[in-house]
Design goal:
alpha+beta; 4-stranded antiparallel β-sheet; 160 residues; 2 domains; OB fold (Dihydrolipoamide Acetyltransferase, E2P)
């Protein structure tokens, strides 16, 4: 199973709103755990294990809530005037260049196109992530030192 298949599986699981899925073959096992259906968190945090095969477990039942889509629609309409700076890769998000340095940007800071806003560590390499737009940071969507997925929104910027 390659990384694209894993990414597609994660997207499928998050859209299906199940809490946990295990996929096993004779030499590969992946467990994807997501928040329960209806929570505000959208992105799955995968846990990958390379182990010997075991008995397959059935996926958890789908839990549905009627009020959740209305709440998500309100949040989306409030943030529609902002532009998201998204992660160009999978890795670990850091707001600082190193633990003893200050953060790259805070809420309320002005950024210009090309300014470094964070770093993402992938395979022991720290990649600087530049802003593609100019504007004011209005929200930081990811906690420091947490995993991020490809195309996951990291910051919201008010371009006006």
């Amino acid at each position: 199973m390659d990384i694209k298949d894993i990414q597609n599986l994660i997207k499928f699981v998050s859209k299906a709103e199940v809490s946990e899925v295990k996929y096993k073959t004779k030499d590969f096992e992946i467990t994807i755990k997501t928040p329960l259906a209806g929570n505000d968190a959208v992105y799955a945090q995968p846990a990958v294990y390379h182990t010997a095969p075991q008995a397959a477990a059935a996926p958890a039942p789908v839990a549905a809530q009627v009020a959740a889509p209305a709440e998500k629609a309100e949040v989306a309409s409030d943030d529609s005037k902002y532009v998201a700076i998204k992660s160009p890769m999978i890795g670990t998000f850091y707001r600082k260049p190193s633990p003893d340095k200050d953060v790259f940007v805070n809420v309320g800071d002005e950024v210009s196109a090309g300014k470094v806003v964070c770093v993402i560590e992938a395979m022991k390499l720290f990649n600087q992530i530049d802003s593609e737009i100019s504007g004011k940071i209005v929200k930081i969507l990811v906690d420091d030192a947490t995993p991020v997925e490809y195309d996951q929104p990291l910051f919201l910027v008010d371009p006006s």
